[in-house]
Amino acid sequence: MGTILANALGSDSAQWAAERRTLLSRLLARMAHEVRNPLSSLDIHVQLLEEDLAQPTAGVAAKAVGRLEIIRGELRRLEAIVENFLRLAEPFSLNLEPLHVGRICRQVCDLVQPDAENRDIQLVVKVVEPLPPLVADAGQLTQALLNLVINALQAVERRGRIEVSVRVDADGALMLQVHDSGPGVPVENRAAVFDPYFTTKADGTGLGLWIAQQIVAAHGGDLQVANAPAGGAVFTICLPPRGQAAVHGQSQS
To answer: Checking CA distances to 217, which of 111, 235, 236, 247 falls within 20 to 30 Å?
Structure first.
């Protein structure tokens, strides 16, 4: 059946099918790798918990509480991995409503402020008013911007600066930018940073930037990356003034 269909549709269809199989194989291999780590951790800590309970001592309760907390954390990590993987196959559904982008920028920065302070990173928000009205999904847009800021925190690591800004360009589009003082994005990686599961971090999932790009695209916008002349990476979200969602089956409620 596959050969007949390929012959009927031509070589382009066969090439497309081969590319899909290759991508699926890469995604499945990456998911297996992501799942294997927490599973190994769970196995070890369950064994240790069994040993603790088999030989009860005065401190066994405290040790058991600690091990159970680790187990719960690993289970939550597994759930997040599976959820992120499933999102690869699902269109992003949007709940569109009028919102103020500057408020979202401030909320995101408030969320990560404690982590930034712990790393000695200066977090700056610049909102250039007035801003045009935007109709968008507040939760999804917050997630996209949060992913970019978290990526910036990981790039800077310690003792640096991150600036989150929003302004209007000459065409009336909203420009949200996250500029960090990290090492920047190597030229050879710029075309791949938004690919699912692409990461240069030992403990990264490689889904944060991909999810951000999908959310922005669902809003009819564009997400780009460049290096600033003075150093560091600049991620720019460009949204049409009214936030018209791209036609990808999103719901508007």
So the answer is: 111
pLDDT tens for each residue of 202-240: 555 667 888 889 889 989 999 999 999 989 999 999 998
CB 117 within 8 A of CB 158: no
Instruction: Based on the fold, state whether residues 132 and 228 are members of the same structural domain.
Output: yes
What CATH number does the domain containing 181 carry? Answer: 3.30.565.10
131-166 tens-digit pLDDT: 888 999 988 899 899 999 999 999 998 999 999 999
CA atoms within 13 A on the CB side of 50: 6
Check: CB of residue 141 under 8 Å from CB of residue 166. no
Q: Is residue 37 part of a domain?
A: yes
- Structural domains of the chain, count: 2
pTM, rounded to two decimals: 0.65
Q: Are 136 and 219 in contact (CB under 8 A)?
A: yes
Q: Which of 88, 81, 129 is nearest to 105 (CA)?
A: 129
Q: Does the residue 253 lie in any domain?
A: no
pLDDT for 3 beyond 60: no
CATH number at residue 8: 1.10.287
Q: Which of 61, 87, 113 is the last residue of a domain?
A: 87
Q: Can you give the pLDDT at residue 249?
A: 39
